Amino acid sequence: MRFCAMPSLYTLLALPLLGVSPANAQETAPPAQSQAEQPKPETSSTADAQKVMLKEGTEVHLKLAQTMTSKTSSVGEPVEMVLAEDLAVGPDVVARKGTRVLGTVVAGKKTEKQKNEATELRVRADHIKVGESFIKLTGEQAGLGKRDKGKMVTYGILFGLSGLLASSNKKFVIPEGTPATAYVQEDISLPILAAAPNSTP
Amino acid sequence: MRRGIVLTAWIGLLLAFTVSLDAELQAPLAQTEGVYLVFYRAPNHITNSSPQVFHSFADSFINYLKSRDVNILEDPERGILQTDQVMSIESQLNLTKNAGAKYLLLATVERPISKWIKVTVQSYDLSGKLLWSEEAGVMGGMTGKEAPEKTLKSLQKKLDPRIDKPGLPKKSAAAPAAPNKETPKPPPVRD
Questions:
Q1: What is each CA distance from A192 to A48, A147, B26, in whole angstroms?
Q2: For chain B, what is the total number of helices (H) and then of strands (E)?
Q3: What ipTM did this prediction achieve?
Q4: pLDDT tens digit string along B25-79?
Q5: Which of A24, A37, A16, A116 is nearest to A73 (CA)?
Q6: How many angstroms from the chain centroid is the CA of residue B26?
Q7: Residue B47: partners with Cβ closer than 8 Å, 6 or more residues away
Q8: Backbone phi, then psi, for A101, in 5-degree steps?
Q9: Smallest CA–CA separation between B157 and chain A, in Å?
Q10: What's the first-to-final CA gap in chain A, in angstroms?
Q11: Which of A174, A200, B50, B57 is the Cys-Cys partner for B148 at CB 3.0 to 4.6 Å?
């Protein structure tokens, strides 16, 4: 009787090694149906359970990860930005603060060779890469200025930039860390990373 | 008594196995023994020289490192960065981490008044600590035509002893799997 009890104890201990928990050992017994015959929706719903839909138009707070100047920025050049805060759908975070965001200079010097600085500087936010997915963004931030005797006399904000366009006598400067706002361009389903610590219901 | 020892050994084995499995699953993405390159064109070079000189020097420098089998990890989205824009070391280190590299190599290309070209190469680890710095430049002569080549040769002499050491790891020392090899392409940019 004692000898019968011990092997069952060893079996019990060996179950985790095989990836089977004692509690669900019976539940995970091989099914009689083949895999092809099993209903697919169950699998997809399990995968969807860990994903959330990030809606088009969701506001995304960014900040510049490089300094931009009207003297060095030329059209088509990539621009580095980062998420200024976690991007979340309700309490579910889909991209963490600091995640890389890529943008493009859409108004600036026409070519890299051009010696004269640009009179307009505009950046477009393109996308955020989260795992294998790209969240497409829309929205531009811009600084537009005119000069009078070497001094910038007016500058306007066209879109998105939170009033932090800096100016000097020599060139426009948008310093690293300048906040900006972009928007999600289209709905995208993303995996949940973690619950946001300060999320409000 | 004997059975008790066997049972304890079994439990110990199981615990060790479970812990190692757990650690494997939760381990963060390991950085590869590789280097991420950034070429920065200083304002005085923008004013007094041409972008071709800058890019040509950068390409020659990359070829030199490749010829020495240095494990260069490229940015999955932008390749090797050659930029006029000021970027903090912190931001550059973020890009380094994204690329899966352990070191950042920043090459600053200048055109001071006294020299045709001056290049400063700085190596940082992921904590932002400056590991070492080397510089080279060329002055004199009627034209600066050969200055980039001479500067590169001068740098080679200084950098050769640093290869296969922290900051310039060789491919042979790197782990076989690079994390960003199969990065999906970004979506097409709209007009």
A1: 10, 48, 16
A2: 5, 5
A3: 0.71
A4: 333 446 778 999 999 999 999 988 999 999 999 999 999 999 999 999 998 888 8
A5: A116
A6: 26
A7: A115, B111
A8: -125, 130
A9: 32
A10: 58
A11: B57
CA gap B104, B94 in Å, rounded: 10
DSSP result, A60-73:
EEEEESS-EETTT-
Tell me the Ramachandran region of residue B69: left when phi exceeds 0, alpha when psi lies from -120 to 50, beta otherwise. Answer: left
Crossing angle, helix B2-26 and helix A2-14, to 10 degrees? 10
Which residue in the block uniquely carries the two structure tokens 């690293």?
A176
Residue type, B11: I
Beta bridge partners of A140: A124
Cα separation, A97 vs A83, in Å, equals 5
Instruction: Kindly identify which residue of chain A lies nearest to residue B47, measuring between CA atoms.
Output: A115
From A9, A69, A134, residue closest to B186, measured CB to CB: A134
Q: By CA distance, what is B6's nearest residue in A?
A: A10
Burial of A177 by CB count in 10 Å (0-12 exposed, 13-18 middle, 19+ buried)?
A: middle
**How many angstroms separate the CA atoms of A95 and A15, rounded?**
37
- The residue ranges of chain A whose pLDDT is under 70 are 1-49, 140-171, 194-201
Q: Which two tokens stand for residue B43?
A: 């304002």
